[in-house]
RNA sequence: GGAGAAAUGGCAGAGUGGUCGAAUGCGGCAGUCUUGAAAACUGUUGAGGGUCACACCUCCGGGGGUUCGAAUCCCUCUUUCUCCGCCA
């Protein structure tokens, strides 16, 4: 959520910047400004009436104390009208504030100046590429066939017990999953991220805090009996750890990592690109989250990108980094780098990590602030990234490391797996 | 699941209808003293709206109500604690 003050002061530049997202924000901004002005004028009027009625109440108290009941009762009558008006104004104020809030929720984050214009993922800008794309032997398979051949992931069993998009990992497949989780967590904690285990369900306030609500309501599984949401990413519970906090400048940086399963309804997804591990309703992910001073957040973003690079380098997977264009940029993000691993057998790139700076967009919803050197409250910056999402890393490993004798385990993972080959 | 108690500023903890945005202690910050630090002493120290700045307004777990007036009374929800039951 953008800050009102920022909108008031930078109306034109916000509208211009949001054009990169291919939206005309002018009507929304105009609505916000109008509602804001209305809200403030109602507030001013209401404040005056409340001030008067506060004053009268005090006088009445004093009159009663000094035994002047008659005068007191006369004043009481005066307050009746004020009460009526203030009730009405109060209702007005609430309605206007709610409408304003609703309108603010509709406006996405302002893209960073480096974000390229564009409509779709075709317009994303490749900024880095590394690693050799292996030459596979004749008869190399995509991961869903490998999974079946070596009996390490069973999609049908998942369908039986739950439904499509809920795979069952078996034997060495399960062990490799666990190995990846431990390996990622170790890499992240070694880089100074504190490991956290958080709930896998969150309440509504948390959903609003990081921006999944109300924008992506239909993407989350909602447990209606208890009004809780299954998390679509660890970003939600981890970032919300500091909802409503006021930090000291010296608290920065705050760096967390956490492993969680992630649940996504993926309503409307279909086709070849959702085969196998490419798109799931439940998958595992290790996330990194940072809370930063605004002056340092872009440096932090670069550090996160370097960190993820190091992991992919160590896994010896061919990958590239894209700077997302305005049309592909998430609602809450100001700048996002996507990491993609090349799937040799599928001959396409698979997104395995997304690293973003949300600037103050989430912090404003979270009321996540810090005290600056003048003792004033300022919004912090929040960032997060996958480090890393398991299914597509697994797909990349299976497909790129396959040999005629089985699937080799990347050297870095052998100590975690306890075996070198899936055969 | 049943019975009872409670929720107040960063923390602890007073406050049961007006003089309370809230005593006191701890912590934080600034100053005095000191070569420096500690101790001691003095001052200061919640959040939000509003204003050029003041004024002013709102907030004592959330929501609603009673009253001229609510941290204080009533209703309701949530959470925590104690006892009982159940349980990985």
Beta-strand share of residues: 15-25%
Per CATH, the superfamily of the largest domain is Bira Bifunctional Protein, Domain 2
- Please identify, by name, the CATH architecture of the largest domain: 2-Layer Sandwich
Helical fraction: 40-55%
What's the CATH C level of the largest domain? Alpha Beta
The major pleated sheet works out as: 8 strands, mixed
Shape: elongated
Strand order of the largest sheet: 1-11-12-13-16-10-9-4
**Rg, Cα atoms, Å:** 27 Å
Q: Average pLDDT, to the nearest integer?
A: 92
| Structural class computed from helices and strand pairing | alpha+beta
List how many beta strands DSSP finds: 19
What does this structure look like?
The longest helix is centred in the N-terminal third of the chain and has 40 residues, at 26-65. The chain has 423 residues and is an alpha+beta fold. The strands form five sheets. Strands 1-11-12-13-16-10-9-4 form an eight-stranded mixed sheet. It has a three-stranded antiparallel sheet with strand order 5-7-6. The model has no long low-confidence stretch (mean pLDDT 92). The chain is elongated. 42% of the residues lie in helices and 22% in strands. It folds into two domains: 4-105, Helix Hairpins; 121-422, 2-Layer Sandwich (BirA Bifunctional Protein, domain 2), CATH 3.30.930. It contains 13 helices and 19 strands. Strand 6 and strand 7 (228-230) form a beta hairpin. It binds one RNA strand of 88 nucleotides through residues 40, 43-44, 46-48, 50-51, 53-54, 56-62, 64-65, 72-73, 75-80, 82-83, 246, 375, 377.
């Amino acid at each position: 959520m953008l800050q009102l003050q920022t909108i008031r002061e930078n109306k034109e530049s916000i509208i211009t910047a949001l054009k990169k997202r291919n939206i005309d924000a002018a009507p929304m901004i105009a609505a916000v400004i109008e509602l804001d002005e209305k809200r403030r004028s109602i507030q001013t009027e209401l404040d005056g009436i409340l001030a008067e009625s506060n004053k009268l109440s005090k006088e009445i108290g004093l009159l009663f104390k000094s035994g002047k009941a008659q005068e007191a009762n006369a004043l009481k009558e005066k307050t009746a009208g004020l009460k009526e008006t203030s009730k009405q104004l109060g209702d007005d104020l609430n309605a206007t504030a709610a409408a304003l809030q609703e309108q603010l929720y509709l406006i996405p984050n302002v893209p960073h100046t480096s974000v390229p214009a564009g409509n779709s993922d075709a317009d994303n800008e490749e900024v880095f590429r590394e690693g050799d794309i292996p030459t596979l032997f004749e008869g190399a398979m995509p991961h869903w066939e490998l999974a079946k051949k070596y009996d390490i992931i069973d999609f049908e069993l998942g369908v039986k017990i739950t439904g499509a998009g809920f795979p069952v990992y078996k034997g060495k497949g399960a062990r490799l999953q666990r190995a990846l989780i431990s390996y990622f967590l170790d890499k992240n904690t070694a880089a100074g991220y504190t490991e956290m285990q958080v709930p896998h369900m969150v309440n509504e306030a948390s959903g609003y805090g990081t921006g999944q609500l109300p924008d992506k309501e239909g993407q989350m599984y909602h447990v209606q009996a208890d009004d809780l949401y299954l998390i679509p990413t660890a970003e939600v519970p981890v970032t919300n750890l500091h909802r409503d906090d006021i930090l000291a400048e010296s608290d920065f940086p705050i760096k967390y990592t956490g492993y969680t399963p992630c649940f996504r309804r993926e309503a409307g997804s279909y086709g070849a690109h959702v085969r196998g591990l490419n798109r799931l309703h439940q998958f595992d992910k290790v996330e990194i989250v940072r809370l930063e001073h605004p002056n340092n957040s872009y440096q932090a973003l670069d550090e996160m990108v370097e960190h993820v690079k190091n992991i992919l380098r160590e896994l010896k997977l061919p990958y590239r980094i894209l700077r997302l264009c305005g049309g592909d940029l998430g609602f809450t993000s100001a700048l996002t780098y996507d990491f993609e691993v090349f799937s040799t057998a599928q001959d396409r790139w698979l997104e395995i990590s997304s690293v973003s700076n949300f600037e103050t967009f989430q912090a404003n919803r979270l009321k996540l602030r810090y005290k600056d050197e003048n003792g004033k409250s300022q919004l912090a910056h929040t960032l997060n990234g996958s480090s890393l999402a398991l299914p597509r890393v697994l797909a990349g490993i299976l497909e790129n490391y396959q040999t005629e004798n089985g699937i080799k385990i990347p050297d870095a993972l052998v100590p975690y797996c306890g075996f070198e080959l899936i055969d």
